[in-house]
Specification:
Strand content: over 45%
Oligomer: single chain
Largest sheet: 7 strands, mixed
Radius of gyration: 13 Å
Length: 124
């Protein structure tokens, strides 16, 4: 049973923008913190951004601060990641994740549900 479905990935030139979306089943979205992670080629999975259940508290990896924005639409059970000023080092598969508490977390072991991922490729 699919719980989280990402979309919006693609190929973009350096300096460009993309918006990722994650459609979630209501039972793992409502009152749950959410996050985005990524895994680049030959790299371990890393935290990108997290958001609490209400959307008024967010956390970011240093590498994306000021460029990426995480936000959520609770009425639509959808999580988003707006990515601006993309660089080749942002190339990765991006994963949406959910956990069963209300806060924002940065460690992947805190998360219970994961999407299949969407590929983002940034060309130089």
């Amino acid at each position: 049973q699919v719980q989280l479905v990402e979309s919006g990935g693609g190929l973009v030139q350096a300096g460009g923008s993309l918006r990722l979306s994650c459609a979630a089943a209501e039972r793992i979205f409502s009152y749950h913190g959410m996050g985005w992670f990524r895994q680049g080629p030959g790299k371990e999975r890393e935290f990108v951004a997290g958001i609490n259940w209400s959307g008024d508290y967010t956390i970011y990896a240093d590498s994306v601060k000021g460029r990426f924005t995480i936000y959520r639409d609770n009425a639509a059970n959808t999580l988003h990641l707006q990515m601006n000023s993309l660089q080749p080092e942002d190339t990765a598969v991006y994963y949406c994740a959910s956990h069963e508490r209300t806060s924002a977390y940065s460690r992947d072991y805190e998360y219970n549900y994961w999407g299949q991922g969407t590929q983002v490729t940034v060309s130089s």
